[in-house]
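Quick one, probably user error.
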């Protein structure tokens, strides 16, 4: 997409002093005259920033303001490698709340709503972001945090919660538990807002069916404020990304070339107002596209990205074939006999790689026939035959956070 004049103005304004304020960018852009960047074409010649760069800046090397202006830190939720520490100024915290309140407004949340917050608090950005946005909007925040499903459901009933915020995995767990107890009539939920992980159509429909809610996808990542930099509107066709806070690009993940609207690639983000740790051309590794054309909601000043299909670094290579988990999920979604849950395990046995796919079904179908049909469908679409294991409904683990569905055991 073309950069808006006001976006380019914000970028060039921060470029005037960026190297002076940030040792990180002084090193990153050594030999590059940022003051000479005046056009979109010139901007697109700048090198990308990635998570590896940010890890090298540990602990506070990303800071671009005097240290006394930092009021909070957050850290990315990854469990491996050096963590990424992201510093926030008072303005950053306030701006994040403004963006989050806007997300709630796009989802039709009002001060009359009661918002139950199940994502985690602490160094993770999710819980506190959902809470700050709800409070700025004027809605009642019910800051439960993760886990304790029994208490979550009890509060949902007692507090007459109307909006649930959760990972898709935990929303599914809650939905199945509420359905199992037959207490849908005691639940007042109207809306569900999920983020932090990709959720396929089958999982989403399963949750909507069980809870009877409007479903909204929220977008964001710790490095760029956190969740809340974009959300799907009530017309449910893509997520609006706040163009006054971030500049959005879609690139070919292999070549780095910027792609035109409508083409699928990797999301790259540049912050426009962030003080504590500005980001320039940050590779998110999230795969999506910019949806061309106008949205029925009328908010066309904020571009829309499509549902995240996965991550460019999620690719599995097996038998010389590049496979993404989303491809397997799309195949499984064509079988109505299967639940929305699955698990992929890669192993190396007897000198060759093996993919095992575990799927759930109930006892009313021919399991052997189903196993063969699933394996045949994967073979036809992907190019090799996996080992398919059929298990009973509910046997695969549910999660209170993100569900891990791919296990690569080849190098354990």
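Nope, works fine. Designed sequence:
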């Amino acid at each position: 997409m073309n950069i808006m004049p006001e976006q380019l103005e914000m970028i060039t304004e921060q470029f005037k002093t960026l190297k002076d304020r940030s040792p990180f960018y002084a090193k990153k852009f050594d030999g590059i005259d940022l003051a000479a960047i005046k056009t979109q074409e010139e901007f697109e010649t700048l090198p990308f920033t990635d998570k590896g760069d940010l890890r090298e800046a540990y602990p506070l090397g990303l800071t671009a303001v005097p240290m006394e202006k930092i009021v909070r830190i957050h850290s990315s939720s990854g469990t491996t490698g050096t963590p990424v520490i992201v510093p926030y100024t008072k303005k950053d915290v306030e701006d994040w709340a403004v963006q989050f309140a806007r997300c709630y407004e796009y989802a039709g949340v009002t001060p009359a709503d009661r918002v139950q917050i199940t994502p985690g608090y602490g160094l993770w950005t999710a819980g506190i972001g959902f809470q700050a946005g709800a409070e700025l909007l004027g809605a009642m925040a019910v800051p439960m945090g993760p886990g304790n499903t029994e208490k979550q459901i009890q509060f949902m009933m007692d507090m007459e919660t109307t909006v649930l915020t959760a990972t898709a995995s935990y929303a599914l767990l809650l939905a199945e538990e509420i359905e199992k107890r037959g207490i849908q009539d005691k639940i007042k939920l109207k809306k569900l807002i999920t983020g932090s992980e990709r959720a396929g159509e089958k999982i989403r429909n399963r949750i909507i069916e069980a809870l009877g809610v409007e479903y909204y996808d929220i977008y964001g990542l710790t490095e760029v404020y956190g969740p809340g930099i974009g959300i799907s509107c009530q017309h449910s066709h893509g997520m609006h990304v706040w163009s006054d806070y971030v500049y959005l690009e879609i690139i070919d993940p292999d070549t780095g070339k910027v792609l035109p609207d409508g083409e699928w690639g990797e999301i790259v983000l540049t912050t426009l107002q962030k003080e504590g740790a500005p980001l320039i051309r940050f590779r998110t590794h999230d795969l999506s596209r910019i949806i061309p054309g106008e949205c029925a909601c009328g908010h066309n000043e904020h571009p829309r990205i499509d549902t995240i299909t996965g991550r460019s670094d999620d690719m599995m290579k097996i038998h010389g074939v590049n496979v993404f988990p989303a491809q397997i999920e799309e195949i499984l979604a064509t079988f109505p006999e299967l639940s929305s849950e699955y698990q992929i395990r890669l192993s190396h046995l007897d000198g060759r790689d093996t993919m095992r796919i575990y799927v759930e079904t109930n006892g009313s179908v021919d399991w052997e026939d189903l196993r063969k049909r699933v394996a045949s469908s994967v073979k036809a679409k992907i190019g090799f035959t996996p080992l398919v294991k059929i298990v009973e409904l509910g046997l695969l683990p549910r999660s209170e956070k993100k569900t891990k569905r791919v296990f690569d055991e080849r190098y354990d």
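The chain has two domains: 89-311, 316-408.
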